[in-house]
Amino acid sequence: MARAEADLRAALDGDSTITIAWATLGDLLWTKGSTAESMIAARRALEADTYLAEAYSIYNDLFFGDLMLGNFPEAGEWCRRGRTTFPGHWRFVECELTLMRHDIRRKADPDSAWRLVRKLEHMDPPDRARAEGRDYHPIYRRVVAATISARAGRPEVARAEIARARRETASDSTLSISLKYDEAYLRLVLGERDRAAQLLKEYVTARPLTSEYLARDPLLQALRLSAPNEKQTPVR
Q1: So where are the chain's domains?
Q2: How many CB atoms lie within 10 A of CB 133?
Q3: Is 33 left (phi over 0), alpha (psi -120 to 50) or beta?
Q4: The pTM is what?
Q5: How far is residue 177's CA from residue 179's CA, in Å, rounded to a whole number?
Q6: Closest CA to 85 of 119, 63, 55
Q7: Which of 56, 85, 153, 162 is most exposed, with minimal Cβ within 10 Å?
Q8: Contacts of 40 by beta carbon, 8 Å cutoff, 6+ apart
Q9: pLDDT tens per residue across all 236 residues of the chain
Q10: Which CATH number is 1-87's, of 3.40.1190.20, 1.25.40.10, 3.90.1010.10, 3.40.50.11780?
Q11: Do residues 108 and 152 lie in contact, with contact meaning Cβ atoms separated by under 8 Å?
């Protein structure tokens, strides 16, 4: 990773207009846990991307960067810009659902959340997502909507959905591990703090490089898990 970063910076020292180099550097910095610096690189990528050739991934990176920094209005703007530029793409509908979960200052609106889930199931059916290697996305969307339902005082909906998600991931260890992160926050919303902490410990054990990211994750501030120094983020 250090060698890749050095190569990218050397390339940009030679030509600061290489869009893909800025975008790749932003991804690398995100993976290292340097969220604020990754945002600077992503913004430079967008400035250099005259014809918006890389805009899809750049808008997505900027959305997640501001989301993790707690800059929810800014994250919402990147989501909106992505939806305007790529109106038929599921990613910029899914980001709206993700933002609803993260921004707890907004009143929980489960009806809108489940409406987005239905829209996403039409735009990006589960069979298509699985065919494209994105098996977890259909599960993720329902768990997020279930979390918003829990915040709105509908715990029975949340418990039913997490039971469904567990059944769907039971035979796939990779999906099961991915679910632990999203289930942990849902359990926290349900008031099951010990269960949430256990799930996160299991997640970090399986993916130890996520520990530093989780320590700063705005969703999980209440848990404040201690963790080693390795850095990596969950897949966006």
Answers
A1: 1-87, 90-236
A2: 8
A3: left
A4: 0.85
A5: 5
A6: 55
A7: 153
A8: none
A9: 899 999 999 999 999 999 999 999 998 998 787 888 999 999 999 999 888 888 989 999 999 999 989 999 999 999 999 999 999 999 999 999 999 999 999 999 999 999 999 999 999 999 999 999 999 999 999 999 999 999 999 999 999 999 999 999 999 999 999 999 999 999 999 999 999 999 999 999 999 878 877 877 888 876 654 333 333 344 45
A10: 1.25.40.10
A11: yes
Spatial distance between the Cα atoms of 137 and 129, rounded to a whole number of angstroms: 7
Q: Is 215 exposed, middle or buried (0-12, 13-18, 19+ CB in 10 A)?
A: middle
